[in-house]
Amino acid sequence: MSEFSGWGRTNGIDFGDYVKIEMHRYHSPNEFFIHKVVGALKSNTWIDTPLKWDSEPINHASMEKVLNVIQCGIDETKVIRVKESDCIKIEQ
Fold first, then answer.
1. pLDDT tens digit sequence for 5-45
2. Measured distance CA(17)–CA(92) in Å, rounded
3. Which one of 37, 39, 55, 77 is most buried, counting C-beta atoms within 10 A?
4. Would the pTM count as exceeding 0.85?
5. Are 89 and 41 in contact (CB under 8 A)?
6. What's the CATH class of domain 18-90?
7. C-beta neighbour count of 87 within 10 angstroms
8. What CA–CA distance (Å, rounded) separates 14 from 62?
């Protein structure tokens, strides 16, 4: 299997990277959960942070860099779309 070279990357965060995203907690300070990036693109639809259990994607007026992510260890079957600027890249 060939190794991913990163050729053609335009985003600072892309496939295979891990990021922290703020999650809303009731009656206590918000926490940051780890998510794995499975895709990056430009879109006007994403879920606003902090994420809540019932958060839905919202159409916004402008196009932004967004990430498709899965939440590690919780539900690794559900892909959500969040704005790249709301994510903190975990350096490995």
1. 555 555 578 889 999 999 999 999 999 999 999 999 999 99
2. 9
3. 37
4. no
5. no
6. mainly beta
7. 24
8. 21
Kindly write down the DSSP assignment for every residue of 3-64, as one continuous string. Answer: PP--TT--SSS-TT-EEEEEE--TTS--EEEEEEEEEEEEEEEEBPSSB-TT---EEEEEEE
Q: How far apart, in whole angstroms, are the C-alpha atoms of residue 24 and residue 21?
A: 10
For residue 42, give the H/E element and its range. strand 31-46
The sheet that has 31-46: what strands, in order across it? 75-83, 58-71, 31-46, 18-23, 87-90
Tokens representing residue 17 in the block: 């990277």
